Amino acid sequence: ACLEQNLEVDCFEKTSSIGGLWNYRPNEDNVGANVMASTVVGVNTSKELMAYSDFPPPPEWPNFMHHSYVQKYLEMYAKHFDLIKYIHFNTEVIEVRRVEEDDQDLFKKWSVSLSSGITKIYSAVLICTGHHCEPRIPTEINGLTNFKGRILHSKHYHDYKGFENKRVMLIGIGNSSLDIAVELAGIAKNSLKQSSIKVVISTRRGTWLFNRITQKGLPYDVVYQSRFYDWLMRTVPWSIANDFHEWRMQQRTDHDLYGLRPPHRFFQQHPAVNDALTNLLASGCDDINYIDEYSVYTKDGRCYQMDVIILCTGYSFGFPFIKPTGLVPVTEDNQVDLYKLILPPSPSAKGLAVIGLVQPIGSVSPIAEMQARWVTSILAKGLNSLPNETKMREEIACRRERMRRQYFESAKHTIQVQYLPYMDELAEQIGCSPPNIKK
């Protein structure tokens, strides 16, 4: 996007190669969040709808790609557009600091201090670190620190090795938890040695379990992210839409039988997507009451003796490297004030943007592309078209209120977006909206 607007660009990458989350590197400690060895696309989107608009993946590749295919796709993209020469590998950004300039300047100047000891000056800085930053460790679980077994966050789970013949408790029921549960339970079920891995998932509120494939065999996002479906959802009463989808979910998995039914409606959560869990479930497990040295006690009175606890409790994000602090403030519950979920509204942050800090029902990649095109279009033309700080904050407040009214209160819902409406919102402003009728 920067190159298309004839902007000079440097990209700094802390590790030795591209790929980020999708580049499976289990033996490196400084790579941030990483996929599991067996991971199929983490956001569970089909290959066409997770691809960039100018580079479709090979048609012979599977609809839902293993992480190795995603990594290969990113490498092919970088090679096709000759992007590697703009990337400085093994280079960590230590600090991004605003340089004091005349307040009338269109852009602020930013000094970027690097791990190499070099400091560079830029007119704009785009932060593309995503939201899988710091593992969130729950402090509200009574007795967690008393546990004498092994405790780890799902970030540090790579594969089943080392968990053979263990009793494993998973706390949380997001996509990472479901993927780990399926892998461990599947190993126990299919092992010729009859591994006695025991897996228990504890969830406070349950979840609606979604499948990747619709009843007609199509990838779910091909159906549910179509313009017809978007129109339908804006037309049908919200309660009826929830009733219908919950009925469909019940046809595949009895959420009551397995203790999965949550107190909220289907469209009040980010969906948990998994095709295999239903075949491996035995019974439900209630929320945790307390933990002692070797056991987990649930609120329904049951006791589980455990060897391992895996915290599938998500991530927190922040920008501690931005100085002065407070230019992009993030609260403990992951609330962040960004205009269009991209720009800090403060006049002191002119030229600073955040790309990819979204949680869509769909893939992040196309949204990050659209955000980058939106930002670089503004940078190329100037910032005069942007509203003032007051209007930016008014829109931020309106967006937050819409999210509050739709989703149950959770740190994972603070950056939630609806895929098509959000993409249309940005596309319209930069003149790249697709036609509603294809000729």
TrEMBL record:
Cofactor(s) in the UniProt record: FAD
Q: What is the reaction catalyzed?
A: NADPH + O2 + H(+) = H2O2 + NADP(+); heptan-2-one + NADPH + O2 + H(+) = pentyl acetate + NADP(+) + H2O; trimethylamine + NADPH + O2 = trimethylamine N-oxide + NADP(+) + H2O; heptan-4-one + NADPH + O2 + H(+) = propyl butanoate + NADP(+) + H2O
* Protein's membrane topology: Single-pass membrane protein
Q: Name one GO biological process term.
A: lipid metabolic process
InterPro entries (UniProt xref): FAD/NAD-bd_sf, Flavin_mOase, Flavin_mOase-like, Flavin_mOase_5, FMO-like
Query: What cellular component terms from Gene Ontology apply here?
Result: endoplasmic reticulum membrane
Tell me where it resides: Endoplasmic reticulum membrane; Microsome membrane
Q: What is its EC number?
A: 1.-.-.-
Q: Which UniProt keywords apply?
A: Endoplasmic reticulum, FAD, Flavoprotein, Lipid metabolism, Membrane, Methylation, Microsome, Monooxygenase, NADP, Oxidoreductase, Phosphoprotein, Transmembrane, Transmembrane helix
Q: What class of enzyme is it?
A: oxidoreductase
For this chain, one GO molecular function annotation is: NAD(P)H oxidase H2O2-forming activity
Where mainly located?
endoplasmic reticulum
Please tell me whether the keyword Flavoprotein is annotated for this protein: yes
The UniProt similarity line reads:
Belongs to the FMO family.
Q: What is the annotated role of this protein in its UniProt record?
A: Broad spectrum monooxygenase that catalyzes the oxygenation of a wide variety of nitrogen- and sulfur-containing compounds including xenobiotics. Catalyzes the S-oxygenation of hypotaurine to produce taurine, an organic osmolyte involved in cell volume regulation as well as a variety of cytoprotective and developmental processes. Acts as a Baeyer-Villiger monooxygenase on a broad range of substrates. Catalyzes the insertion of an oxygen atom into a carbon-carbon bond adjacent to a carbonyl, which converts ketones to esters. Active on diverse carbonyl compounds, whereas soft nucleophiles are mostly non- or poorly reactive. In contrast with other forms of FMO it is non- or poorly active on 'classical' substrates such as drugs, pesticides, and dietary components containing soft nucleophilic heteroatoms. Able to oxidize drug molecules bearing a carbonyl group on an aliphatic chain, such as nabumetone and pentoxifylline.
| Full protein name | Flavin-containing monooxygenase
Q: From which source organism is this entry?
A: Meloidogyne floridensis
